[in-house]
Amino acid sequence: MSIEGKIFPGEETPAQSSRLNRRHIIMGGALLAVSGLAFARTPKRRYPELNDKQFSALFPATFGDWRPNNVSELVLPPESELADKLYQHILTRTYVNPKTNAAVMFLAAYNSMQLNNVQLHRPEICYYASGFSIDRSRPVEIGLPGGDEIPARTVTATMGSRTENILYWTRIGEDFPQSWAAQRLAMTKANVEGYLADGLLLRMSVINDDRDQSVKQMTDFVTGMMAAGGPQTRRLLIGNA
């Protein structure tokens, strides 16, 4: 309070008050800018959710010489609360080729939004949990028509007299991690870029002792499926590669 122009101790002068007001405006503007930046950097969902019918339709049941078969020996992810959180969709089929008597067991698991604490379940875990021994797990590049190469893995799993050769890849956004560490790095990279990546696990397997023959068979199978499914199927399986 002032009397006849006198300023009492602790009272602001008009000049001081003006400086404080300017300081508050600057600080407020800075806080708003930081808040806006934080909001802008909050990862957004990049891929829309699919319902079960839309997801299933992306994988043709019949293509080329391949036909669906009701008999299946597919090894599935462990049934648990965690497994339920991993995927929005899990599609399983067994395809047979009457001309060659070949059979391919097929699994596609998808989530439109991957989080760092919920990661795709790699097949080595599923097979081991089902009683298989993992005899081989190696990275491999799968050549596709047009010159694309997909980083994938081949796994050989055995249980008793059954030898199963597995070909799979995981796609996190636009990356194809071949290990747990690379998988987490891919999700972190997507978040830094400002979006929540989707996640796909594509797995094929053949009961056959011949690994090289099995890998070729599965590669031909999946390229045939992509050609029959069209651009949307290709986009889901290999992103924008």
Write the layout of secondary structure elements.
Layout: H1 14-41, E1 44-45, H2 52-57, E2 67-69, H3 81-86, E3 89-97, E4 102-111, H4 123-129, E5 133-143, E6 149-159, E7 162-172, H5 180-192, E8 195-196, E9 199-207, H6 211-229, H7 231-238
Parallel strand pairs: 1-8
Antiparallel strand pairs: 2-3, 3-4, 4-9, 5-6, 6-7, 7-9
Protein name: EpsI family protein
Organism: Sphingobium lignivorans
Pfam family, one: DUF3485
Helical fraction? 25-40%
Q: Give the CA-CA distance, first to last residue.
A: 72 Å
Count of folded domains: 2
Total strands: 9
User: Quick check: average pLDDT?
Assistant: 77
Shape: globular
The number of helical elements comes to: 7
Radius of gyration: 27 Å
Give a quick account of the main beta sheet: strands, pairing sense, barrel closure: 7 strands, antiparallel
Low-confidence stretches: 1-12, 30-40
Q: State the secondary-structure class.
A: alpha+beta
The string of secondary-structure elements, in order, is: HEHEHEEHEEEHEEHH
Q: What strand line-up does the widest sheet have? A: 2-3-4-9-7-6-5
Strand content: 25-35%
Protein name: EpsI family protein
Organism: Sphingobium lignivorans
Domain Methanolan biosynthesis EpsI: 26-228
Pfam family, one: DUF3485
Structural overview:
- With 241 residues, the chain is of the alpha+beta class.
- The chain folds into two domains: 1-42; 46-238, no CATH class.
- It has helices at 14-41, 52-57, 81-86, 123-129, 180-192, 211-229, 231-238, and strands spanning 44-45, 67-69, 89-97, 102-111, 133-143, 149-159, 162-172, 195-196, 199-207.
- The strands form two sheets. A seven-stranded antiparallel beta sheet has the order 2-3-4-9-7-6-5. Strands 1-8 form a two-stranded parallel sheet.
- Helix 6 (211-229) packs across helix 7.
- The protein is globular and about 45 Å long.
- The relative contact order is 0.15.
- InterPro entries: EpsI_type_V_pred (IPR054654), Methanolan_biosynth_EpsI (IPR014263).
- This is EpsI family protein.
